[in-house]
Amino acid sequence: MSSPSTLFDSLRTLPARQPLARWALRVLRWALTLAVTFAGLLALTFVIGRKVPIDPVLAVLGDRASAAAYAAERAALGLDKPLLTQFAIYVRDVLHGNLGTSLLTSNPVGDDILRVFPATLELATIATLIGIGIGVPLGVAAAVRHNRPIDHVARFVGLIGSSVPVFWLGLMGLLLFYAKLHWVGGPGRLDPAWDGMVDTRTGILLIDAALAGEWEVWRNAVSHIALPAAILGYYSVAYLSRMTRAFMLEQLSQEYIVTARAKGVPERRVIWRHAFGNIAVPLLTVIALTYSNLLEGSVLTEIVFAWPGIGSYLTGALLNGDMNAVLGSTLVIGAMFITLNLLTDALYRVFDPRAR
To answer: How many domains is the chain partitioned into structurally?
Structure first.
């Protein structure tokens, strides 16, 4: 039987006229990278679960459990087996979708994550769209009008976004726009009066309310998501505008841009077709990484706005010593980050021939 290295070597030596073979090689590399990285993530979460100073048996039974009950529960959890056997059982359970049972909710952790993750997905997606819609044009304008007022505005936005903590900005936003001006809804996804009015189909409240035709609920949901999405979106705007500005400045200083302008090519075409066209692929990579970071890094925003996403769920589990929920959430977030990074790499190679 051929080894993986032999298979890679045989694919690599195929003629350049066989693009399917080259793509097969890339897919195999991506699959191998995904498998190795995920195995490392499994090992890391397993070690964390065994090293934290929390006894999982006492967490289930309580401090007053008898010795017989303690021994029985320890055996039921598989903690009386060798570490390698415990790890094999852990890997098997994860691969079968069994992340354990939450001590807080008494539900399977996988079911809890499926319930809370759409809220995080909804928030991060809107924030990313805000970043694309405002940050990219702002970065282009700042580069085109270098050292002019719009460039100074973009720099200031980037400076605030990289220096002001998100929880402080969130609290100030709540005090001003909710408590004082009453322009937006308060913490949470809905007012209590509207809670439970819409059946869950996708878990994304704005879509579920629209599908059900409950437009009053939809408007209430918009009023609640507007501020946390704007806060997260601001950081997305700050980062994307800074990266877009840097990419554009580099392109606008290239000789081909000077040549195009000397030939009388319209400025709009020079900017958007020539300069922006050349930064579209690396910018797509930056946007994908930004989206990934928002999905996994919105914990503080969710806490400030009592947003029932995976960040709030993970924080509650940590504070209450619910290690099954902590490890399950960490595993899902890590797997999502790995997958999105690999997809970003794949998109980069698809759209940029130089990376192939």
So the answer is: 1
Report the predicted TM-score, pTM, of the whole model to 2 decimal places: 0.83
Length of the chain: 356
In a domain, 82, yes or no: no
Instruction: Tell whether 31 is covered by a domain.
Output: no
For residue 187, what are the domain limits?
A: 116-355
Would 51 be classed as within a structural domain? no
pLDDT single digits (tens) 181-226: 999 998 999 998 888 888 888 999 999 999 999 999 999 999 999 9
